[in-house]
From TrEMBL:
<dbReference type="Pfam" id="PF00005">
    <property type="entry name" value="ABC_tran"/>
</dbReference>
<keyword id="KW-0067">ATP-binding</keyword>
<dbReference type="GO" id="GO:0005524">
    <property type="term" value="F:ATP binding"/>
</dbReference>
<feature type="domain" description="ABC transporter">
    <location>
        <begin position="6"/>
        <end position="238"/>
    </location>
</feature>
<dbReference type="InterPro" id="IPR017871">
    <property type="entry name" value="ABC_transporter-like_CS"/>
</dbReference>
<dbReference type="InterPro" id="IPR027417">
    <property type="entry name" value="P-loop_NTPase"/>
</dbReference>
<protein>
    <submittedName>
        <fullName>ABC transporter ATP-binding protein</fullName>
    </submittedName>
</protein>
<dbReference type="InterPro" id="IPR003593">
    <property type="entry name" value="AAA+_ATPase"/>
</dbReference>
<keyword id="KW-0547">Nucleotide-binding</keyword>
<dbReference type="InterPro" id="IPR003439">
    <property type="entry name" value="ABC_transporter-like_ATP-bd"/>
</dbReference>
Amino acid sequence: MSCPTLHIQGLHWSPHSGGQPLLEGIDLRIGAGEFVGLIGPNGSGKTSLLRCAYRFNRPIAGQVHLDGEDIWQRNPRWVAQRIAVMLQEFPEDFGLSVRDVVAMGRTPHLGWFDGDGDASLIDDTLARLDLLPRALDAFICLSGGEKQRVLLARALVQQPRLLILDEPTNHLDPRFQLALLQQLRNTGLSLLASFHDLNLAAAFCDRLYVIDAGRIVAHGTPGQVLTEQCLAEVFGVQALVDRHPLASHPRITWISPA
């Protein structure tokens, strides 16, 4: 893969100075416009790795490059102009309207005295996600699915090169899960997202990385990664893996212990 949008190489990270690394020897690449999924058991290091990718956790070794630039050699503003993040939990809204929350995505691009010069971009993004009729509504009054769309709109007006998502379908019902992931694919951005639902990861991701105990243990297309042997070894559960009857990606059926 040439000229990856994101390239993580030889990354080690520990939550404590001098402590045992929680992440060890991580290598990961994301190409332009590629949707990459990160999967693994609870406590395997998914969230910690994502935090390293968006310049929150500083590695003790290794490098994180965005468009060929070391993100730790750049200031936070430079990174925020290029990487947007959607986390699991909804932020405190402090009484903000939908439009106010979306407008926050422009903050990395604004100077001290800039006004609301990005009004057309904000309104266009709201319209694109069918949120314009809700623009003046209080963010706190929205449903979970609507809040996720608002946070996606905020990320899009940030105009990033890379969008990082930690469990983007958490707390959403199936209809909103599918709608949100399709909207993400339609952005054309480079995407890195962690998943608990492996069938969703299989359906929407171009490639997957499997992390277990802080190490990448497998990577490739969903068909290459989501094998019965890999699932048994990493998740400790037996599964039947076949082909989805309406698509080409794998379908996983978990087998309950007798």
